[in-house]
Amino acid sequence: MNVTPFTESELMARFEEFEYYDIKVRKDYSGRGMYGASCFGIVHDLPDAVLGGIIVGLFEDKFEAINMLESARIDNMGRSTITYFPGWGLKEEG
User: What is the pLDDT of residue 59?
Assistant: First the structure.
């Protein structure tokens, strides 16, 4: 599994300026066709381009960021969306 260069708290810190949006990180999401495997996902109602821009800003290696974004999948969760990244996990805190 690939590991992001950022932790959950670093990711959530980037979302602080979007206080009007309900944003949550899930570390154990298993989406359609993942057959029980899990990855991290972001539950949000942000435009996709904004979410992508935030994520790219967390990577030093922009090619790695693009690689992760290309793996992204989206599921509807009622009023929100989850964008999840099969094969990717978050860097451990500490």
Answer: 95
